[in-house]
Amino acid sequence: MSTSHSENSLKNWALLTVLTLIWGSSFILIKRGLEVFSPGEVGAYRMVAAATLLLPLSLPRIKNLSKTQVKNLLLAGLLGSFIPAFLFPMAQTQLSSSLTGVLNALTPLFVVLVGAVFFNTRITRRNGLGLFIAFIGVIILVAYKEGGNWGDSLAGINVYGLFVIAACICYSFNLHVIKTRFTKLKSIEISSISLLMILPMALIYLFAGTNFSYKLVTHPKAWEALCYLTILGMVGTATALVLFNIMVKSASPFFASLVTYTIPIVAIMWGVLDGEVLLLGHYIGIAGVILGVWIGNRK
């Protein structure tokens, strides 16, 4: 029995490590894609790549769904994948990849907050304290200018951090939607079919609403950027969703939540390696966000 437990623990730690590397690297891949493509093109292509990879899993299963399940899966696809895929590149047009990765760690706290406001779940004093500390950390991050000075007016605040917060709120609503409306579907079905639901919108927007095709032909670095975005979609979204579902089933919720704290570490490492400069105020803000998430999310 101890051997089986050890193997299971090793498997979970391996999954945690791989997911940390994948999701922590997503922000630098977005940054590379933005060197050629617009935020909308980055988001749409990411969804196309992810949904295409999971077609063998989604297509055989969709015929067994009811109309209500299809509608709910469309909602899950919009909240959990489609909208955030556009919000993160928009944020990273004015926000470093490392700081975007840190702000993404707020998702567990917004799960608590959204649950309390919209789904009648209870918010504890510990949750409230964590939210407050993390909120202070966010304020420091968005108010600290690149030159090392504090913003002295609203114009000095990097409002693009709000796009990341909006994405975290979308993730939070999606989690509650999945919890309340998908009691009979397996997690792999939710992941693959929800991506299939938003695939037509992503394709129409990408090829009819942007200059994506033109850039592929004319921009000298287009195909290099496309490779980064393909990795982002197929590995950072599709494969990561499958691996996370496996980990959630075999590990405790607390263990699965550890990825929230490890993702910013990888995001910051990539940012520093890429020449991004983090100042003292940024590190103070980062510490506040991570501390707040830990206090509000610990068992």
Automatic annotation (TrEMBL):
Bilayer-crossing regions: 12-30, 42-60, 72-90, 102-121, 128-145, 157-178, 190-208, 228-247, 254-273, 279-296
Any one annotated GO CC term: membrane
Keyword Transmembrane attached: yes
Segments forming domain EamA: 16-142, 162-295
Localisation: Membrane
Alphabetized InterPro entries for the sequence: AA-Vitamin_Transporters (IPR050638), EamA_dom (IPR000620), EmrE-like (IPR037185)
Record key words, sorted: Membrane, Transmembrane, Transmembrane helix
Annotated membrane topology: Multi-pass membrane protein
Family: Belongs to the EamA transporter family.
Protein name: EamA domain-containing membrane protein RarD
